[in-house]
Amino acid sequence: MKLLAENITICDIFEVKRVILLPLAAKALRRHRADAERILSKIEAYANDPSSLANMVKALQGSTALRLRVGDYRVVFEETDQEIIVTKIGPRGSVYDWNAKVNNVAYVTTPGGEELAILPRSELDALRESLDHAQALGSFRAGQIPGLTPDEARALVAAVSPLAFWRRYRKLTQAVLSASVGVTQNYLSEIENGKRGGDVALWLRLARALELPVESLVDAGD
């Protein structure tokens, strides 16, 4: 590294961007634990020096989002002057190509006179993901959902359950959270440790108490 002045390198000129992972993006790392560290390290490397991974990033048409390629995974994020905000992480086949133009629309009219637009599933999924990205970003910027640092995301991956992680993140004891949702502390402990499932109504109460989307609390298969 070329020195510009005593104890100052070129890297010192650039401010490292802060990495923020939104809840569902961070939870996705739990489904891919074996590769979670590799994915997080690549995101951090991009935040430290975007030019070093420029060939791994592409802008997504019709959106302000960018997509980082990490082996067979794709990371969808928003980049500002100071932040990298990750909204989705998934295998290549689960992150659709937003660059594909919606140009295969067919129009039909129902017997009742209603005009409908029909398009391929892949294009519908791409449009839905573009909307999901915008909504997640809007919720974060409005303070409706939290954002995690990479180290917090690592803690989520390592936690016994997303529920246990988020309870601690909100600085709540099991006694306080269980009382707020109307169950015993022992019952909540069993849910956190995967010994009980809990019904839908309870999970909705937990989500409200923790101020999170309910899907961010439940592991796949719960």
Helix content: 40-55%
Low-confidence stretches: 8-12
CA-to-CA gap between the ends? Answer: 50 Å
Question: What structural category arises from helix and sheet content?
Answer: alpha+beta
- Overall geometric form: globular
Largest sheet: 5 strands, mixed
Mean pLDDT rating = 87
Number of helices: 8
The oligomeric state of the chains shown is single chain
- Number of DSSP strand runs: 9
> For the largest beta sheet, what order do the strands appear in spatially?
3-7-6-5-4
Strand content: 15-25%
Output the helix-strand order: EEEHHEEEEEEHHHHHH
Radius of gyration: 21 Å
Topology:
Layout lengths: L2 E3 L2 E2 L8 E4 L1 H9 L1 H16 L8 E3 L6 E5 L2 E7 L3 E9 L14 E4 L5 E4 L2 H21 L8 H9 L3 H8 L4 H8 L3 H8 L7 H11 L12
Parallel strand pairs: 3-7
Antiparallel strand pairs: 1-2, 4-5, 5-6, 6-7, 8-9
